[in-house]
Amino acid sequence: MSIRIGLGYDVHAFGDGDHVMLGGVRVAHDRGVLAHSDGDVVLHALCDAMLGALALGDIGRHFPPSDPRWKDADSRAFVRHCADLLRERGWKLGNADVTVVCERPKVGPHADAMRRLIAQDTGVEVDAVSVKATTSETLGFTGRGEGIAAQAACLLVRDAP
Ligand SMILES: Nc1ccn([C@@H]2O[C@H](COP(=O)(O)O)[C@@H](O)[C@H]2O)c(=O)n1
Ligand SMILES: C[C@@]1(CO)OP(=O)(O)OP(=O)(O)OC[C@H]1O
After folding, report:
1. Which of 37, 44, 89, 101 gives the lowest tally of CB atoms within 10 Å of its CB?
2. Residues with a CB atom less than 6 Å from ligand 2
3. CA distance 16 to 2
4. Which atom number of ligand 2 is nearest to the Cα of residue 10?
5. According to the UniProt entry, what is the EC number of this protein (predicted)?
6. What is the pTM of this model?
7. Nearest CA to ligand 2 atom 16
8. Whose C-alpha lies nearest to ligand 1, atom 7?
9. For residue 71, which atom of ligand 2 is closest to its CA?
10. Which CATH code is given to the segment(s) 2-158?
11. Residue-level pLDDT, tens digit, the chain, 161 residues
């Protein structure tokens, strides 16, 4: 059996709006995010973790921000594409763990809904997907409420070498 690990990180600045997309879930908020796509930091970090584990570059290489096809795109499509890439190579997502960093909105009440969507889009059981959150105790850009960040780690497993 072979294993691979991958790490991902994403940030989006807050802008005008009334919601943020997080893990595919529309979370009501008094700000939106500035982004080319729907700006879902959870799913972008997860994509980068999966692509990193495969050594296939990053999300911007697969979905260039200069490409109008990805304007306002649903980031769940990016996750499904990355999941296809790993399956094509014989890998399966073993587990994924995501941390969202922001003072607000509160992520906890939405975490299980995010886990369910990610599990659905990557073809794994819900208990293989973790979504959690922390504030940065008012420090830094997240602490000042200027933006939102997410980190992701994933493990890939494959029977073959
Ligand atoms: N945006 C957030 C931030 C935090 N949480 C939850 O609150 C707990 C305490 O956060 P600290 O930064 O003070 O450690 C954290 O463990 C999360 O459960 C949240 O839901 N959404
Ligand atoms: C997702 C893409 C899609 O064009 O654009 P953004 O929504 O701006 O998000 P980012 O995290 O900067 O990743 C780059 C792009 O791949």
Report:
1. 89
2. 10, 35-37, 39, 44, 59-60, 63-65, 70
3. 45
4. 11
5. 4.6.1.12
6. 0.97
7. 60
8. 134
9. 4
10. 3.30.1330.50
11. 999 999 999 999 999 999 999 999 999 999 999 999 999 999 999 999 999 999 999 999 999 999 999 999 999 999 999 999 999 999 999 999 999 999 999 999 999 999 999 999 999 999 999 999 999 999 999 999 999 999 999 999 999 88
Domain ranges of the chain: 2-158
Residues at CB less than 6 angstroms from ligand 1: 102, 106-108, 133-135
Report in angstroms the alpha-carbon separations of 75 from 18, 35, 63, 127, 128. Answer: 18, 11, 10, 21, 20
146 CA from centroid of ligand 1 (Å):
17
AA identity, residue 29: H
Residues 126, 93: Cα–Cα separation, whole Å: 12
Tokens 């697969």, located at residue: 62
